[in-house]
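Lay summary. Proteins are chains of building blocks that fold into shapes, and those shapes determine what they do. In this project we predict the shape from the chain. Here is one chain we studied, written as its sequence of building blocks.
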Amino acid sequence: MPGLVLKLAPKERVLINGAVIENGDRRCRLSILTTGANILRLRDAIHPDDANTPVKRVCYAAQLVLTGDLEPEAARQMLLRRIEELSQIFTDADSRSVLADATEALVSEKYYRCLKALRRLLSRESRLLAVARQQS
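And here is the predicted shape, written in a compact code that computers can read:
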């Protein structure tokens, strides 16, 4: 069966095409058969006040496309520029691979995949910022 399968914990919320859906008291599985549906687990959502680092800001922008608060056409060029800026900071091979995955997803208009790839950089960014704070 093609599509995305969401496994939801009890009371977990998910945003699907602008509608917030809350699971009941038991775990469940939802099969999303519609291709191109915008889906965001609310537990993974970044609050605007928390978008205070370069990677978090790029993730937040991708998230805004998924929530319908930013038009994909308006976001695409801006996201591509920001990913390029991140490639100036994250120069190791693994990070470059993550950024390439994010770029490919973005060009293919797969914003959830783009967000998912970018989120893999959050822990690296956190470590880099911690080292920078220690050195100053």
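What the prediction tells us: The chain has two domains: 4-43, 47-135.
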